Amino acid sequence: MLSPNFTLSLISTRAIAPRLDTIKAELSARGFNLLSETHLNPGFNAHAPDPMGDAFALTFEAELTTVECKSIARHLSTTFELDALIQNQQHAGMPKKLACFDMDSTLIQHEVMDELAYEYGIGEKISAITESAMRGKISFKASFEQRLACLEGFDASLMPGIARSLKLMPGAEILIKTLRANGTKVTILSGGFENFATLLQETLGPLDAIYSNVLEVKNGRLTGKISNQLVNETRKLTLIKELARKQGIDDQQTLAVGDGANDIPMLLHAGLGVAYRAKPLVQEKVRHCINHTNLAAILYVLGYTRSEFVEQ
Fold this sequence. Notes:
Elements: E1 5-12, H1 17-29, E2 33-39, E3 54-61, H2 66-80, E4 83-88, H3 89-92, E5 98-101, H4 112-120, H5 123-134, H6 140-150, H7 159-165, H8 172-181, E6 185-193, H9 194-197, H10 201-204, E7 209-213, E8 215-218, E9 221-226, H11 233-246, E10 254-258, H12 264-269, E11 272-276, H13 280-285, E12 288-290, H14 297-301
Parallel strand pairs: 5-6, 5-10, 6-7, 10-11, 11-12
Antiparallel strand pairs: 1-3, 1-4, 2-3, 8-9
């Protein structure tokens, strides 16, 4: 049976203290019994804001359903212009031993398929299909096959240059390095391309595993196909389950982060599933969302203090 105690994580790019009393008064008006308050970045200076944001963790006692937790968190996020996430304290207190990340528009600021397409001169055509898939209007498989076929004949020698031009999502490097320094297994589960995912390790350091699609190349050019089993929503869900089982990790000790429709199953399955600046369909389906701060905000949700962030 789950605990009646909950943890509310509040993260913002601006100082939270000026809004905190109002937030606590609103919780009190809902009948919540505040148990504790922890400032996770006590050195935050409103006049020289920390890029990692300000953060508080409030624990309270209440009778809440999952739907109510989600509704209250969304209300607080919108009303106070910050990220608010509510977890049952029993789950919030469990360290995450396995973290699974989408890559495109999650760990990096790009959709790699779109980048290849723009280089090939068919960018608008491809990005329109990408957007439809990410919003769940067409299946990931159909979208993927349509877009990939358009890239047949692309010069594969151009890919390393494109890969090195890709930018990490703000906070990604600190998030991954902090997780790894604390013993969390970090894996990429991406519908993007392994050819690009492997290069992320030049910045992020060695990852425990990468599961992504491998572009097929013949005579120096893309064939418009992949040479492996498609990594789609079903495959991502299977992989997070298998990885946890093989390493003896409880499902509640897993973290998943993504932004697209093909991430929804693994986000719903994980002990903590976070939709990061995600498409509307994803935010509607998934319980926890981050829209105002960067990826490192996830560390606050996991209970880390700012002083515990690994930056080197």
